[in-house]
Amino acid sequence: MQKFILTLTGPDRLGIISEISTFLAGRGCFILEQAQYGDVSAHRFFMRCVFEAQNESFDRAAFEKDFEPAALRLNQEWRLYPADEKPKTLLLVSKEAHCLNDLLYRTRHNAFPIQPIAVASNHPDLRPMAEWYGMPFHHFPVSSDTKARQEEQIAALADQADLVILARYMQIISPELTRKLYGKAINIHHSFLPSFKGAKPYHQAFERGVKLIGATAHFVSDELDEGPIIDQEVIRVDHAHSVQELVMLGKDIESFVLARAIKNIAERRVFLNERKTVILK
């Protein structure tokens, strides 16, 4: 039997859940999971529903054709995904290997619901790692003179992907490209921003004697490192940790938070809500 994930978002109103449930039941669809949230301040409704088509002759195209009028009546934007569909994913990197290695390792061992299609970088350093995992590697050098052309090359690859992951890609993306990728590009950074901007943030944190370090995964936007937050995590540190230990702990938490954010997105749990996100568990 086929399983699908149905997502909806739009103005909140009375009866949405009832109408959707009735529609699914009327077509022999058994609801396995359902989560919804009504944002009172924004008057917005969000729903994620996992259902199983009980009829072996279930026709997805016919279902979508029948559902469209109901969605229009409810004024909801909606998408229907096969539950086992893995988003095609482009990975952007520079020289740091920890996030790339973690994501490709999880994928190789079927522990991650994405389908990486390529790795692209402004440096050649991570080519051996990408190719060891069997990933096509694209080296797109960038300078002030070549940035526009380099971003055109990235955009061409991104057109083939459902997700774009900046796995420690250390280049500022132009407003033109961020607008093109908005809602499908995810970045990871240490949570010291904006307190410790610039080079060597962990060294700055060490000098200030921080007691918490962390990481933030967010959508890429025009505002540098200020896009809608998807996931965050922190861990405690103290005076006994060296700079090197802070760096290693930081890499661990960056990898973990990025992976958790991507998993939620791949499972269709993440919804944009103006400058915020809604994560339906």
3D architecture notes:
It is a single chain. The model has no long low-confidence stretch (mean pLDDT 94). Strand 8 (163-166), helix 6 and strand 9 (185-190) form a beta-alpha-beta unit. The chain has helices at residues 16-26, 60-74, 98-108, 127-132, 147-158, 175-181, 201-208, 243-266, and strands at 3-11, 29-39, 44-53, 77-82, 88-93, 115-121, 137-139, 163-166, 185-190, 212-219, 229-236, 270-273, 276-279. By secondary structure, it is of the alpha/beta class.
Question: In angstroms, what separates the terminal alpha carbons?
Answer: 23 Å
Mean pLDDT: 94
Fraction of residues in β-strands: 25-35%
**What Rg, in angstroms, do the CA atoms define?**
21 Å
Query: What are the segments in which pLDDT stays under 50 over at least 5 consecutive residues?
Result: none
Would you count the extended β strands for me?
A: 13
How would the global form be characterised? globular
Number of domains: 2
Strand order of the largest sheet: 7-6-5-8-9-10-11
Which fold does the CATH topology of the largest domain refer to?
Rossmann fold
Strand-and-helix sequence, N→C? EHEEHEEHEHEHEHEHEEHEE
What is the helix fraction of residues, given as a range?
25-40%
What is the class of the largest domain in the CATH system? Alpha Beta
Oligomer: single chain
Identify the notable features of this structure and list them briefly.
single chain; 281 residues; alpha/beta; Alpha-Beta Plaits; Rossmann fold; 13 strands
